[in-house]
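Deliverable D2.4 — example input (structure tokens):
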């Protein structure tokens, strides 16, 4: 168990059972700190807090305050200001205030919430500010003596503005992928927002193109002379450092100067290409341009949905319902022929080149050409002389095919009757299976195991044809099941399996 005042303990109130009460109490203490109030009593917390889950009782507030103090978020000290009698003196009364760790946690949570709620912005004014600060730096570099105070102030402003631009640009690039959410919005609002966003992006792209060149020129002019400026800024910062020996002061100065070099390098890579890599400003410009067609695609998808475009999956579901309501196989066959235009194709057998049939895998480009009389379209094809080609009698083939289908249907039904008993059994107790029953079992196991996220999960689902339902419950990891078939032995971890027919097939 972590001890009190560790980060794990300080964040426990966020996910504890009474998190709503804890968060309301900590928010009230954060507000009191902003008002320069050092302490709060339990009754003051009860009155002033904005309760998330309803106003609690005073006893609940006192218990929550004691728990927060135990976790280290608050500090408690005896309250002796309201003592009216000896009994009040001996009764436990406490004043509470934010601890150092609790204050840090509230600051972190507030920053986290702000980051989630912040909307990405493409700051055109930041480009103007950066160019202005760079011109000031050029003037300071040309001066006979460096004004350390003015230099330090300019560099800090430059870094602050640039970091804001970079952070917002990064958030924008990450957030543009969510523009597809517009598909769920109202159509009128989407159209209006589309035009505003396009205008916004075009204005930013224009400013970025117009100012990036000037900023890059200022950076190129400053780069050979930047080291003395960064050194002067680091020296001014080092004056405020705590006293230390000479070696520590030298190391601190070197670290500050290196930090300023890294900031300058980041600014330079944003507007000037290096190592065959495009500058980040160019990447941002490409992202902003790509956002416009992405937005237009989202609007197009919305329009397609509003226009009532046909949904093929819905059509197939309706057709499946018709098939399910057929009285027998003959009705199902007639429905299938009508739905999929499976008309007789006897005319395909009237092939004058029957002796030169090509396999179905022959590409059309490699097949011999079909010769057509040049006047066929104008006069039509003349009737052939002599006896007409004999229509092939396929009664025996159709009878054989129907017999095979009936036999296969009976085998499948027998396999279903063999497995779909509705009783729970173990895979190891199923025994020997014929090929059809084994194929059905493999199909059922495949459907069930494909939905299993963990080997220990219990799975229950319906088959794709809706005829069977399977429940699969894994047994201990060391158990083993073997199912013997004509093809061999199927072995694996043992499971309890229940297969139930959903309707009469």
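Example output (designed residues):
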């Amino acid at each position: 168990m972590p001890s009190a005042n560790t980060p794990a303990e300080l964040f426990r109130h966020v996910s504890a059972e009474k998190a709503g009460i804890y968060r309301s109490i900590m928010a009230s203490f954060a507000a009191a700190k902003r008002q320069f109030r050092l302490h709060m009593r339990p009754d003051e917390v009860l009155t002033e807090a904005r309760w998330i889950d309803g106003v609690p009782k005073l006893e609940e507030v006192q218990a929550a305050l004691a728990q927060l103090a135990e976790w280290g978020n608050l500090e408690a000290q005896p309250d002796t200001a309201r003592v009216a009698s000896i009994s009040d003196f001996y009764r436990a009364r406490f004043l509470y205030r934010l601890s150092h760790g609790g204050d840090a946690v509230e600051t972190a949570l507030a920053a986290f919430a702000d980051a989630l709620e912040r909307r990405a912005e493409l700051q055109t004014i930041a480009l103007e500010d950066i160019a202005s600060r760079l011109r000031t730096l050029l003037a300071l570099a040309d001066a006979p003596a460096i004004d350390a105070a003015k230099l330090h102030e300019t560099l800090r402003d430059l870094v602050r503005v640039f970091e804001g631009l970079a952070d917002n640009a990064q958030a924008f690039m990450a957030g543009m992928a969510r523009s597809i959410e517009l598909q769920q919005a109202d159509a009128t609002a989407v159209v209006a927002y589309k035009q505003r966003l396009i205008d916004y992006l075009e204005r930013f792209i224009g400013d970025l193109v117009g100012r990036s060149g000037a900023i890059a020129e200022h950076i190129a002019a400053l780069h050979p002379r930047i080291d003395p400026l960064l050194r002067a800024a680091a020296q001014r910062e080092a004056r405020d450092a705590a006293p230390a020996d000479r070696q520590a002061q030298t190391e601190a100065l070197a670290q500050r100067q290196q930090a300023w070099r890294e900031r300058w390098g980041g600014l330079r890579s944003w507007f000037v290409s290096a190592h065959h890599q495009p500058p980040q400003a160019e990447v941002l410009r490409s992202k902003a341009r790509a956002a416009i067609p992405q937005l237009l695609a989202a609007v197009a998808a919305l329009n397609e949905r509003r226009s009532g475009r046909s949904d093929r999956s819905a059509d197939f579901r309706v057709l499946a319902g018709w098939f399910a309501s057929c009285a027998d196989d003959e009705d199902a066959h007639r429905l299938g022929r009508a739905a999929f235009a499976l008309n007789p194709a006897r005319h395909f057998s009237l092939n004058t080149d029957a002796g030169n049939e090509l396999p179905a895998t022959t590409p059309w480009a490699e097949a011999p050409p079909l010769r057509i009389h040049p006047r066929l379209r104008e006069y039509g094809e003349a009737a052939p002389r002599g006896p007409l080609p004999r229509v092939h009698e396929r009664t025996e083939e159709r009878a054989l095919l129907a017999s095979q289908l009936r036999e296969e249907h009976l085998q499948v039904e027998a396999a279903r009757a063999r497995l779909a008993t509705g009783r729970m059994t173990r895979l190891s107790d199923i025994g020997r299976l014929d090929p059809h029953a084994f194929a059905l079992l493999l199909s059922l196991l495949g459907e069930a195991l494909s939905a299993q996220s963990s080997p220990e999960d219990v799975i229950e689902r319906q088959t794709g044809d809706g005829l069977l339902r399977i429940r699969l419950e894994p047994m201990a990891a060391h158990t083993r099941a073997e199912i013997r078939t004509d093809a061999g032995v199927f072995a694996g971890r043992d499971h309890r399996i229940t297969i139930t027919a959903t309707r009469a097939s």
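DSSP finds 18 helices and eight strands in the chain.
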